[in-house]
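Page 47, continued from p. 46.
Same chain as before, 313 aa.
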Amino acid sequence: MKGRRIVDGILVAALVGALMFASAGAAQGHAAIVSSTPAAGEELSAAPGVVRLTFSESLIQNLSKAVVVAPDGRRYEGGPSSERKVEIRLTTNIPGIYLVEWKTVSPVDGHSLQGRFQFGVGVKPGHQAETTLSPRRGELALAALRALEYAGLLVAVGVILLTALARRKPQLDLVVASLRVPLSVALVAGIGVVGGEAMLASTDASQVPEFLRTLPGLARLLRIGFEAAALAFTPWLLATAINLTLSLIALAAAGHAAAVRPAIVGITTDAVHLIAAGMWAGGIIVLAIIAKRPGAGKDLLDRFTPFAIPAFL
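Result:
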């Protein structure tokens, strides 16, 4: 029954984590397209010798690319020509609609983005002329894994806080909850997230190690390492708390917060945000699922309130 309560709490926390992740989407650090020559939907009298794409931020050179598909089906591939630009050289001038497809990987947060647009030579492109961002296979599953990872980490923070409060003198005679379940969920989901993001950023499996050697990739590997260490040190509350804190810092460093300048401000702010969310949201969830004696829950709630209110604010 207690294990079921913990699982139910993690599912609730997953919803909280999903909402937090969705709210972060407004501050994307993705390398999105800013302009192109020719422009999306433009009609030309002759094919350009070079198609140039400009993006909103710098690119990981070996993982970012673009391709132009000519009306006859021939493909012309290109890559970064500078920090924020990609060029594709064309050796054809046949009339028709040309499709431009691009994929970028940001060296700031490691997130990948892809899109497409059309231009025409001698003809006007149709309804697909404007730039569109294309969802990729597996992105929904990856989002679900991210929510589970957030949930496990938030619940683990709540368990640590309430366990520490219960041990304060006079010590409360109750068992808060096991740290192994939420930390195991966070670790397994985190491994899935890192693996999925590495595959999305890579053209094929051979490029995965290259992605993991970048700064965003190393931040992701550190996050997994700290999550594993937190799980291994569960018998020792302080050691678990230290490794859990480090995993949350690494989580912030692998996300949109890294795009803030200076980066340390964004990463620190996001890490504090995650820890505070774990203290109040994770703490409330754990309070709702712990097995408690009559009267003990109120005592724990009284100790929790002075931490929950500032954390919420």
